[in-house]
Design goal:
Layout (H helix, E strand, L loop, with lengths): L5 E5 L4 H9 L7 E5 L9 H11 L3 E4 L13 H22 L2 E7 L22 H16 L4 E5 L2 E2 L6 H11 L2 E5 L3 E2 L2 E2 H14 L5 E4 L6 E2 H10 L6 E5 L13 E2 L4 H7 L6 H11 L1
Parallel strand pairs: 1-2, 1-3, 3-4, 4-5, 5-10, 6-9, 7-12, 8-13
Antiparallel strand pairs: 8-11
Helix pairs in contact: 1-6, 2-3, 3-4, 5-7
Bound molecules: NADP nicotinamide-adenine-dinucleotide phosphate.
Length: 286
């Protein structure tokens, strides 16, 4: 009989889910179950309950989320169903079956008007439907399962899925000139680094519930990020800094999106790579 602790990953076909899958061989002490949206749509509560009846995983890492930030402005109900209510149900089911619940949230729960890094205790004030729906998920998780761990992260990219790094790489190939906003600052997060930290938390054997922040080290604008991506290619495309007012989007983005990661570092002795080092590591795999 296989007695290894079981880690269930929902939303397994997203950026973070796929990076967790890549990390599976590094953690042979655990048995992983990866479920995509097709395998287990988290908003189908009966399916979720039935799955837990059959499997009772030791840990659940919920990577499933409605992440279309602009579309959420016109699909509020769906965004709240997936990012809010469904997270509450997952948390409650985890409590019922004694499964430890790790949920991922976002810097968009803040309004971005701050001038210093946001701590997990900083007041939230989401400016978009997506941000509000993710905040609802955090609140429901902690209400139905106070033993949950929630990790807020920012500017996630990886070799998988759609993200800023891959979009810029494509545009560098297609264009001679590229405008990128320089008045929104934050910290990029390589999903592989986040995956590693999540699994390190689990493997530590120490479980301290609450909200944590994780991102790579360093603060940059999207413009600086694009320039750094270009520097790792042979592109001759010219990149120009522009104000975000020039690029109106359906959802408002926080201008200042810097997360203070001290609580996670102090509680779990985890490090965090500088964003440039992580970007180079991702680009090498692309
Ligand atoms: N990306 C960022 O910049 C960013 C920043 C901060 C925080 N986060 C948070 O980090 C976490 C991981 O993000 P990510 O970048 O890996 O997102 P992602 O690539 O968009 O992956 C999300 C996954 O969730 C799946 N999904 C959507 N609705 C579902 C449902 N009802 N049931 C089950 N699965 C469902 C999606 O399925 P399909 O593949 O079929 O669409 C997708 O595979 C999310 O909680 C996100 O909110 C992301």
């Amino acid at each position: 009989m296989n007695t290894k602790p079981v880690i269930l990953v929902t939303g397994a076909n997203g950026q973070l889910g796929k990076e967790l899958k890549q990390m599976e061989p590094v953690f042979p002490g655990f048995r992983f179950i990866f479920l995509s949206r097709e395998d287990l749509p988290i908003h189908h509560f009966e399916l979720v309950r039935n799955f837990f009846k059959g499997y009772q995983p030791t840990y659940l890492i919920n990577c499933a989320a409605y992440t279309a930030v602009d579309r959420a402005e016109s699909e509020k109900e769906l965004a709240f169903q997936v990012n809010g209510e469904s997270v509450g149900v997952l948390a409650a089911v985890c409590k019922e079956y004694d499964t430890r619940f790790i949920h991922i949230s976002t810097d968009y729960v803040f309004d971005g008007k701050g001038k210093t890094a946001y701590t997990p205790e900083s007041p939230t004030n989401p400016q978009s439907v997506y941000g509000a729906s993710k905040l609802e998920g955090e609140q429901q998780a902690l209400l139905y399962n106070p033993g949950s761990i929630i990790i807020r992260t920012s500017w996630v990219y990886s070799e998988f899925g759609k993200n800023f790094v891959k979009t810029i790489l494509r545009l560098l190939n297609e264009k001679e000139d590229l405008d990128v906003v320089n008045d929104q600052v934050g910290s990029p997060t390589y999903a592989a680094d986040l995956a590693r930290v999540i699994l390190d938390i689990i493997a530590s054997g120490k479980w301290v519930p609450g909200i944590y922040h994780y991102c790579n080290e360093g603060i940059i604008s999207w413009y600086e990020f694009a320039v750094a991506i270009k520097e790792l290619t042979k592109s001759n495309c010219r990149i120009h800094p522009v104000p975000s007012a020039q690029y109106p989007t359906a959802a408002k983005r926080p201008a200042y999106s810097v997360l203070d990661t001290a609580k996670l570092r102090e509680t779990y002795s985890t490090g965090s790579r500088n964003w440039k080092e992580s970007l180079a590591a991702c680009m090498a795999r692309l």
